[in-house]
Amino acid sequence: MSDHSHGSAKSTVFVENDRVIVTEWRFAPGANTGWHKHGHDYVVVPLMDGKVRLETPTGPAHAEMKAGVPYFRHAGVEHDVINANDTEYAFIEIEIK
Fold this sequence. Notes:
Elements: E1 10-16, E2 20-27, E3 36-37, E4 41-46, E5 50-56, E6 59-65, E7 71-73, E8 78-83, E9 89-96
Antiparallel strand pairs: 1-2, 2-9, 3-8, 4-7, 4-9, 5-6, 5-8
């Protein structure tokens, strides 16, 4: 993720090179990434089933996430991602440079 304010979720970068950035995001209940704008196309791979709340410029939204089912988004997405579960939630994010 790029240009994000500091949220309470924990990020661990596993790979960063001239082609990709692979980051694991772990969220305690209610934790968030912080408001950010994606500077690259990216793929998210949920590590478990769960729900996230997205704060966006057009208002809040919710997304159901399924373990192992990836999704793709183009650069330019702006949001804050919040764990909407009563337990820890995690996903892998792969930014494509």
